[in-house]
Amino acid sequence: MLMETILDLPIENKIFYAVLLFSWTVYLWEAYLAYRQRRIYRSTMHVPQELGKIMDTDTFEKSRLYQLDKSNFSFWSGLYSETEGTLILLLGGIPFLWKVAGTVTARFGLGPEYEIFQSLSFLMLATLFSAFTGLPWSIYNTFFESITLFHWHGFKHPTLGFFLKDAVKKFIVTQCILLPVTSLLLYIIKIGGDFFFIYAWLFTLGVSLVLVTIYADYIAPLFDKFTPLPEGELKEEIESMSKSINFPLTKVYIVEGSKRSSHSNAYFYGFFKNKRIVLFDTLMEDYSPLNKDGEPENVPAEETDTPTEAKAKPKNKKQGCNNPEVLAVLGHELGHWKLGHTVKNIVISQMNSFLCFFLFAVLIGRKELFIAFGFYDSQPTLIGLMIIFQFIFSPYNEVLSFCLTVLSRRFEFQADAFARGMGRASELYSALIKLNKDNLGFPVADWLFSMWHYSHPPLLERLRALGGTKQD
């Protein structure tokens, strides 16, 4: 009976309820995976035997509790997000906001024929709504993490003023990029004729390349401080390693990532012969703020047959890697470049983008797609992009995301092997352990959760692949 009722529904109703059903199916699947991982956090109370020599009990317990708290927070924030999205669809939130956007543009003397201006108004209102509804969750998440890390590691957590200023700055920068790009994309679709999908794809390709080129030089410095790596042994070693694999390095920067997060990272950017490397200050023990609390302590040497001397022994560093380990991490990152992983990811991304625009061109004329989401009298291009890319393509997007996660893990193993081939296996081994500790990563993962979510292999798998190099 129920099946007959469903089959008798108009096609637009079937589309609407299929979108809702799939959305909740994905949410429940994600919730199930998170439950499996939380069960690991709760049940794994002691350091596994194979980790006994590389992780102390205190660090293991801190990472366990930290990840358990993050998982609990993700459950509630995810439930809220899914419920909010469902209510927006059921209550007609999208067509309502489109009418509000039309009212706003009408105040400036612009009627429905100025669809692009109404689309930009809709986009700004939608991002404002998203920013305000997500603000409490973002505040809690930011200050929960920073205060937790301050309590355990001594990090200076950001003030509320810094957080709000940063959020406003991000919103403004996002609008300055999003609105012009969207207006040009909509215009191209409007005037592009039967082959508009080709022009739209070429336009988004060009925008992507421009943003990748200018991001680190002009956008990222608006939020974080970038300084050139000083002359010295580390810089010389980085230049020498780059030269050995023909990596066209031009500059090396340090970014002050510690003011917003404890997480460590290193990356490169740039096209052709203009490559640059960026190192987070949290990655390097000589630059991490946690290691600048005081001067090295002098520890008397043990008495021997020779005259005793006071030998300077540095304090244990709280965070970061030493120079050989930093070079090993960079060897891994440069491996991505040498093995063509960056180019392969760009090719896959653009093939997917072209396919999506082609399918969009096929589907944009289907009026029932618009009726399904409350647009009975009009078929705005921006709304069509939202419906098709966000809702209709959602099953395809989930499959693609999983495939890219699997591919990413394969690339990570290959980059590790590249660093090992450069003779840096031992240093990379110890660097991975230190970074896992600094980031409070939990080294034990449920196999299904790991398979679905982890773009990087779990710590133990990477250490085993490096050949079981022993570290004290």
UniProtKB/TrEMBL annotation:
**Chain ranges of the Peptidase M48 domain:** 228-467
**Cofactors that this protein relies on:** Zn(2+)
Q: What is its EC number?
A: 3.4.24.84
Q: What is its main location?
A: endoplasmic reticulum
Q: For this UniProt entry, which segments traverse the membrane?
A: 15-35, 87-110, 116-140, 171-189, 195-216, 354-376, 382-407
Give positions of region: Disordered: 291-319
Q: Where does Zn(2+) bind?
A: H332, H336, E412
The active site annotation covers: E333, D416
Taking every annotated instance into account, which residue ranges of this chain make up the domain CAAX prenyl protease 1 N-terminal?
37-225
Family matches, as InterPro entries: CAXX_Prtase_1, Peptidase_M48, Peptidase_M48_N
Please provide one cellular component term from the Gene Ontology annotations of this protein. Answer: endoplasmic reticulum membrane
Catalytic activity as recorded in UniProt: Hydrolyzes the peptide bond -P2-(S-farnesyl or geranylgeranyl)C-P1'-P2'-P3'-COOH where P1' and P2' are amino acids with aliphatic side chains and P3' is any C-terminal residue
Keywords from UniProt, A to Z, are: Endoplasmic reticulum, Hydrolase, Membrane, Metal-binding, Metalloprotease, Protease, Transmembrane, Transmembrane helix, Zinc
GO molecular function terms listed in the Swiss-Prot or TrEMBL record: metal ion binding; metalloendopeptidase activity
Bilayer topology term: Multi-pass membrane protein
Quote the record's cofactor note. Binds 1 zinc ion per subunit.
Q: Where in the cell is it found?
A: Endoplasmic reticulum membrane
The record's annotation in Pfam families points to: Peptidase_M48, Peptidase_M48_N
Question: Which GO annotations describe the biological process of this protein?
Answer: CAAX-box protein processing
Family of this protein: Belongs to the peptidase M48A family.
Described function: Proteolytically removes the C-terminal three residues of farnesylated proteins.
What is the protein's given name? CAAX prenyl protease
